[in-house]
Amino acid sequence: MIQKLNEIFGKALYAIRQYPLVLLMALFASICLMFIAEENFRASEKVFTLIKLTLVSCLGISLMFGLKILSQRIGKQFLLELGGILFLVLLYFLLPKLEKDFTEVYAFLLVPTYILSHLFVSFAAFFRKKTEIDFWQYNKNLFINIFLTAVFTGVLTGGVELAIVAVDQLFDFNFDDKIYLRVFYLLAIFGSSLIFLLFNEKGLEYLEKEGTYPVVLKFFTQYILIPLLIIYVVILYFYSGKILLNWELPRGWVSYLILAYSIVGILAILLVHPLKENSAKSWVKIFSKIFYFTLIPLLILLFTAIFTRILEYGYTEPRYYVLLLAIWLVTVILYFILNKNQNIKFIPISLFAFGLFSLIFPYFNTFSVAKRSQENQLMKILKDNKLLTSNQKIDFKKPVADSVVTKIGNEFVFLIKRNHKDFLLNLIDTKKSKDLAKNINENNFWSANSDIYYSFSDIKKTTKYASNYDRLEVISDQNIIDVKDFQYVFYFNRYNHGNKKIGSDNFEIYDRVTDEKPQFKVILNSDKEADFSLLIKDLVKKYKGKAGKVNVPEISMEADLVDYHLKMILGNFSINQYRNNTYPNVTYDDAYLLIRKK
After folding, report:
1. Residue 157, C-beta contacts closer than 8 angstroms, at least 6 positions apart
2. Residue 190 CA to its chain's centroid (Å)
3. How confident is the model at residue 314 (pLDDT cuts 50, 70, 90)?
4. 501: which strand partners?
5. What is the distance between the alpha carbons of residues 402 and 395, in angstroms, rounded to a whole number?
6. Looking at residues 520-529, what average pLDDT do you find?
7. Is the pLDDT of residue 466 over 50?
8. Among 340, 335, 353, 338, CA closest to 123
9. What whole-number distance in Å separates Cα of residue 337 and Cα of residue 334?
10. How many CA atoms lie less than 13 Å away from 442 in the CB half-sphere?
11. Are 424 and 440 in contact (CB under 8 A)?
12. Element (H, E) at 95
């Protein structure tokens, strides 16, 4: 037993010495998430900074591992790791300073970057000439180690969490509930990274050494994955036949189904690569030979579906990536059908190249293409409906259909999120539309959308609802709370308002603010209550039918509860009023309950 423990500790120390930056990134990400939990996940500048650090650190785990593997092949470890750190610092500063500016646009930066970092790991050490089987063995071992890491981490995390529960319940330690989150973050990120490195042993030398084909992987690929793919492709072919018979355009979501089949099929081909000529089942050999040919008609369907959407609505980042993946699939098919000296390394390397192109290539990257396309879409809508004046400003007095107004508002939101303010401001008379200009400048896209709707003075109802809802945000100017007359302050928000205790007294926040008759109460010891519902009702009544942003000195209300005097303070309050005359959807954040004993 002692010998086994010494062996594990020895491997752990070796992993720490060999991969310090990988583990440092994992530890830093875990600590950041712990601090976020300590802040009760509330929206604040500090929490948003921690979220950004977490995102960058998690990316750094795979990036630093890939650079370490590359350095084991070519040396120059210090330069490679320095370059990796500089890249992560640059990425951090590319992210916005304020949470309100963190829109889905940044998902189209971060998600591809994460994928690229993992693709880089798959081929980092194979730029120089190495056999195809070395490359396959390396990735096979990585794949197995990732699976084992997931199993070990899941069991370890669950076991430790249950142990803490047992100690807490049996010995009355009364642990803080946040201990479970702290343990989860530590083990799920730092612990899984360390376990993965333990499985990798000495790194590249171990990962690329030849070994027997895993029986479980062979069974999974031959008897589960490939038969499912065959069923799946038959379904897609029947759907293609239905389209031809009915002579109709394909549905938009078929693009994602074809991409899923293509990518999972390529993964299956890679998994059975050493078996396809020898011990594989007959259907595996047939599938390996005809797979790329089965993609050809499906790609025709894919291009038809994506260009149908693009020609009608223009490019957005998702459509750009669907088209890019379709072009990549054509490249892969041509390579494996026409090239006699084919090599499976081409798959991850080519996908990495396409992904890098989509992020950094001038003019043709996803962000530039989407911006230009949606600018053109907006101008087309305005010109087709004759809504431009002689000096190329939007004429808000002209009659227009509500469906057109909705499209214009959606285009404004899209371009505001992408920080394309100058283009939009050139389309409006900023003197006449001061609120709209202000919301564009301040990136308040929902308010700008409402301003667009109400700026048009002659809207013709052609659809049941022109826009889903109007949004109003009431913001308190009270940045500092005076607590001199109170003894206790409890922070809570809409999604996190657990019970609070003062001695033997238990305070519970109860809210049901989205109902037609909102309820907002503080309940003492499950018996007595102080009703703050009037605070919600008055705000909804006062600002009914309004949209945009309103600043007020304070949002508060006081009440007595048995032996206590309470003051409820809200930092902000949002009213989403649907245009079908139903009750509004109400949310709030950064709320404080001040308490004093009488």
Report:
1. 183, 184, 187, 188, 191
2. 21
3. very high
4. 506
5. 15
6. 86
7. no
8. 353
9. 5
10. 12
11. yes
12. none
Of 95, 28, 34, give the one whose Cα is nearest residue 64: 28
Task: Give the 3-state secondary structure of residue 241.
Answer: helix
The residue to which tokens 């030979």 are assigned: 289
Q: Quick one: angle between helices 2-18 and 20-38, nearest 10?
A: 90
- Give the β-pairing of 469-476 and 548-552: parallel
Q: Token match 């600043």: residue? A: 551
**What is the CB-side half-sphere exposure of residue 309 using CA atoms within 13 A?**
19
Please give the Cα distance from 302 to 255 (Å, whole number): 5
Q: 């890679």: which residue's tokens?
A: 270
Instruction: Encode pLDDT of 138-190 as tens digits.
Output: 998 998 899 999 999 999 999 999 998 888 878 877 777 788 889 999 999 99
> Which are the contacts of 99, defined by CB distance < 8 A and separation ≥ 6?
43, 45, 48
Q: Which pair of structure tokens corresponds to residue 312? A: 């009608």
Residue 396, classed as helix, strand or coil, is coil
SS3 content of the chain, % helix, strand, coil (to 5): 60, 15, 25
Full-model pTM: 0.78
> Does the pLDDT value for residue 422 go beyond 80?
yes
Q: What is the pLDDT of residues 36-57, one digit of tens each?
A: 888 777 667 888 999 999 999 9
